[in-house]
Amino acid sequence: MSFKIDFFDLMWLAEAVIPPRPIARSACFDSFSDEHYHAMTENERKQFFEHVQKCHGFTLENEQCRHFYARFNPKNQYRVTCLHNGQETVHECYLFNDSYHVTSSRWIPRDYIKSVTRIHDNLDIRP
């Protein structure tokens, strides 16, 4: 089952679940980076990023907030080309703790990375 939520309601919801919070609210906050990010337009991502950073309780001292910041920061978006078992795949990732993350709990092992390109300025970055 899926639910539709208005973008501005989503921004209000974000304020209520900024960590540290109980586990259900914490999981909701992670879903912004892991799921909702991909459903937003670039303009919505920028608006959401700017809004959440201004919310009470948002701090880069919290690891979940740092993941959110890394995922939504437009200057931290990368296209990572991987080669694994003869298959080449391309993933849109964000850099977090020196690893290219697909989600907050999934990242690409360095051994599989063939090339990295920053999305917004098309600079080729060697692994």
Helix proportion range = 40-55%
**Distance from first to last alpha carbon:** 40 Å
Q: How would the global form be characterised?
A: elongated
Structural class designation: alpha+beta
Beta strand %: 25-35%
Give a written overview of the molecule:
It is built from 4 helices and 6 strands; from the N terminus they run ααααββββββ. It has 127 residues and is α+β, with helices and mostly antiparallel strands. The chain is 40% helix and 27% strand. The mean pLDDT is 89. Strands 4-3-2-1-5-6 form a 6-stranded antiparallel β-sheet. Helix 1 (7-17) runs parallel beside helix 3 and helix 2 (23-39) runs parallel beside helix 4. It is elongated and about 45 Å long. The chain has 2 domains: 7-72, no CATH class; 75-125.
Provide a quick synopsis of the model.
This protein is of the alpha+beta class and 127 residues long. Helix content is 40%, strand content 27%. The chain has a six-stranded antiparallel β-sheet.
